[in-house]
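Sample intake sheet
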Amino acid sequence: MRGPTRSFVLLFVCFLVWGAPAFAQSDTPAGDQAKPAAKAASEEEVEQLRREVADLKATIQKLLLVNQQQAAAAGSGSGHLVQATAVVASSAQPVDPGAAPSADPSAAPPPTAADIDALQKEIDLLQKKTNDTPPVTAGWNGEHFFLKSSDGNFLLMPVGYLDANYVSYKGDGAPPDTFSISRARFGVQGKYGNKLDYAFLFETANTGSSGLTIRDAYVDFKPWDVLKFQAGQYKVPFSMEVGTADTNVEFVSRSIVSVLYPDAGGSFRAPGVDAHGDLFGGIVQYWGGVFNGRGLIATATTNEPEVVGRIRFQPWRSSSSSFLKDFAIGGSAAHSRSRGLTNELSFSGNINDGTFTFFPQYRINGGIERYNGFFIYRKGPLGVRGEYTQGLWKRDNIGTIQLGGIGFQSLPGIVGKGAYGQVTYLLTGETEPENAIPRVKHPVIGPSSPGETGGPGWGAFALKFRYSWLEGKVGGASCTADGTCPITPAIFPAQSDHTDQFTGGLNWYLNYWVLLKFDFSADRLVNPSVQGIAKQNYFVALQQVQFRF
């Protein structure tokens, strides 16, 4: 540029692009140890860089205007000289096109079109520098803390949650009141590229000698929306209730029907692999997989794996009507095989709050068949859910041990069936989610929920009610020494027991991560318990503090 104006502008732009350490990004290769590693700029620094680019562009527009005025003055034959001060620092005063031309003979000459083109090239380089700035590689994304590679391909998020409970009982033969830590889980989850998710989650609240227990350890490969593959140890995809994340269950515990689900004794998890996907834009979802069927980190006992299939329909998902948009129905089926020689037993008759055992466990051998149907309806703050499950545990060629010998014969199978229905309603106006914590509009503590801007308040409150029932049945059988039971005569009595539970309560969401649950249950023991407890009603109060990150 001819004159001090151009020299000053180019010198300033060069300093801004290459000399400002707050915005600089090194091009040093990762393997070059002789030079310092690049430091990723923060979002605030990148935004400042963008503002500087905008200031430079504004300066160009003013310079163009000054040039036009100078050309007009030259064309009129006037001897006046138009001055332009091309200083682009943030403290510089804008050029006033209407100001009187300077008569100072020492003033710099006005910028030319070539000067402006050179300045535009410098701005283009600065703009490229802004666009190429790597994203933030560590921080808080509104949901979790995270670590991320500069190219965004690898993401790691530490996750965890704690459930601290207090349960009090009223009723003859009920357990003592108890403080407990039902869950204290910690792990990591994330993604590698755009097609692979992973998770590792450990349970630290075990009271036994096992110490840390692996709860989830899997990878989820997602090449297409219609076909994805998951492998490792995770929840068996049978029940809608189990599919709800532990931290998103509205009640302190799942329904009493959950004892019928696959791998109920192993937190509903098992090693295995499945295929799943979304069809027709999510209107249809499906899961199909094979598992060991013996719970956490357990090997199979037969050569026939547990096979599970599940399908879900949301027919009005794409409808413009909000009335049925979030209504879904579905069902599932599962088949596995038990082995009497390894002393496998039928489902547990101990209800989930531990009040009593209503039905005995039997030694089983042969196939296990399970069937399930479910529905969910959501509209605004209202959520309605229901589920029915039935199972058959066979006793084919089971060994009957009696004094005087051993006889082998097939006995009637064990039938378990039950259902629950529940209603939840958010009193403070939040929207009922399907499988998540509500976005708290006015949290008591901490920041607002992701996507919310409400200030401090009373948090969110939800009313809830659930009714569930459970039944266990087994047919009777007998054999005598007349030829139907050639070795050991025996009699096997029939048994049919059932129980139900009414649960109501209140949830107080202090914020998106802290939740207080208050449940009150009435458990009805309809038949005498296998613990020798007479028919009666029990009352159970449950409180839980849940924290997650």
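Comment: The first strand starts at residue 138 and ends at 140. The two ends are 58 Å apart (CA to CA).
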